[in-house]
Write a structure and sequence with these properties.
Length: about 475
């Protein structure tokens, strides 16, 4: 979207061209250092012909030189058809006699430009790429936003929105590595590209910059240099070390990976149990203590996951939620984490169906499971809250049952779930008492009728974290066997 100011500027510019241009002046500009094959040739010629920018006295354009803040103000001021000239300004470093004083003051009055807030404009400082984006987005009132983003412009950055607006309008592209370089000084060639695209939408459809060939994947060195955990909900694994490379798969929150190479651009070469490739290192957490054995203790294990209740048996309820729905969601997340870690998962149910308790035990027995984990959610009187994990001491697996429950409860408490520790408890529940062929446990994630616990249970991010904690607890159990 382009604001009214631009329309006015356009009409004025059109009139100028119609009334005062001669064919000779239109084709006059040419610079020995901007050849026809230069990436910004068309844009530089376009702006030079409009007398918005000009070369140096030696006839060159110097496309690789940086633009100062006063040069930028004059060029943008001319593009906006502002008055310019010599004016008193509000800045201590821009005297009336300065060649850009009129444009600087015009644009400051219109809130298109601003100084440093200390009385200085920074008249000789170089303009950064993010400053350019802010000025253009204010001057031409770009409004539309999208989810385009650059790896080095976080949402928290004050220039995220202006950069996003310009990217959405096709005015700015990033560098080939997916970065924008917000603090980099802008070169005259890029300044011309951006300004021409603002003024003439025909320049916008051109590809921003040529994409490089994706580099071939590095072979992993024989031993990883570190282990790390994924901190994004989903993290793309790519064929090369930047966002231009195609994704070969995704890793879930909490997945543990071996890191083989850390690159200077922030990307890392990693290996999970199922994927090998490059990920953005900003979504990896290093230095966590994984007690597991690197040889992947879950690989080949059969884990039976039992989502409590189902169909006409809703289990507990509170705050508009039913236990049977939440246990199924968490169980599916748990299945995904376990499968990513190389385990085989058998679910007692994957939809909203009902099984008798005997049926759940016999599914596990038939599957020849290595462990059985039943997922439940508590309720009491609205006042109780927290996580507890149960085991049975009434069968031959008693010792192993307790170990399994303890590892899971420990992970539930150390995984940033913010739950009260109600401990590891003996329980008489059918599905664990009669699970005689494999260690078994029953996790009560929290209380559905308690307002704080309910809030957490309602969050899918929390549910993923809880599922990941159970998965890590099971992994710890096997690592310590
Ligand atoms: Zn239950």
């Amino acid at each position: 979207m382009i604001g009214k100011k631009n329309v006015v500027a356009w009409l004025m510019m059109l009139m100028t061209v119609l009334c005062f241009s001669s064919p000779a002046s239109v084709s006059a500009a040419s610079f020995p250092d901007v050849s026809k094959s230069h990436r910004a040739y068309d844009e530089v010629m376009y702006l030079a012909n409009k007398k918005i920018l000009s070369g140096y006295t030696d006839g060159t354009f110097k496309p690789g030189s940086y633009v100062t803040r006063s040069e930028a103000a004059s060029m943008i001021g001319r593009a906006l058809q502002l008055k310019g000239g010599y004016r008193q300004t509000e800045y201590r470093d821009v005297p009336k006699g300065h060649y850009a004083s009129g444009y600087i003051q015009d644009m400051s009055s219109d809130n298109i430009l601003s100084g440093y807030g200390n009385g200085y404009f920074g008249v000789s400082d170089k303009l950064t790429r993010e400053q350019m984006a802010s000025i253009l987005s204010r001057a031409w009132s770009f409004k539309e936003t999208s989810n385009l983003s650059f790896t080095d412009v976080p949402k928290s950055s004050p220039t995220y929105v202006p950069i996003n607006k310009l990217a959405t309008a096709g005015i700015v592209g990033g560098y080939p590595n997916g970065k924008f370089g917000p603090k980099d000084y802008i070169m005259r060639a890029d300044f011309a590209l951006m300004l021409a695209r603002v003024l003439n939408p025909e320049f916008r459809s051109k590809p921003a910059e040529p994409k490089p060939e994706p580099p071939p994947p590095l072979p992993p060195t024989s031993t990883p240099i570190a282990q790390a955990q994924v901190t994004a909900d989903f993290l793309n694994v790519r064929t090369g070390p930047d966002a231009n490379n195609s994704a070969i798969g995704m890793l879930r929150y909490g997945t543990t990976v071996d890191v083989y190479t850390k690159l200077s651009n922030g990307w890392a070469y990693i290996k999970s149990s199922s994927l090998t490739g490059y990920v953005h290192g900003g979504y990896l957490k290093y230095g966590f203590s994984d007690t597991s054995n690197p040889s992947n203790p879950l690989s080949g294990k059969i884990i039976v996951v039992d989502a409590g209740h189902g169909d006409h048996d809703p289990g507990a309820s509170g705050y508009g939620m039913k236990e049977k729905d939440l246990t199924l969601i968490v169980s599916k997340h748990l299945r995904d984490y376990l499968e990513d870690a190389g385990a085989t998962v058998v679910m007692t149910r994957e939809t909203d169906i009902f099984h008798e308790l005997e049926e759940r035990v016999s599914i596990a027995k038939k599957a020849k499971g290595d462990v059985f984990v039943s997922v439940h959610i508590n309720s009491f009187n609205g006042k109780a809250h927290g996580t507890e994990t149960y085991y049975s001491s009434d069968n031959a697996m008693s010792e192993e049952n307790k170990k399994l429950a303890t590892f899971i409860q420990k992970r539930m408490m150390s995984s940033d779930l913010d739950m009260e520790d109600r401990g590891v408890k003996k329980g008489p529940f059918y599905v664990i008492k009669y699970q005689k062929n494999m260690p078994s446990t029953l996790v009560e994630l929290g209380f559905i009728d308690h307002k704080d616990d309910a809030l957490r249970l309602a969050s899918d991010t929390w549910r993923k974290k809880a599922a990941n904690a159970i998965h890590l607890g099971i992994k710890d159990y096997f690592s310590n066997k």
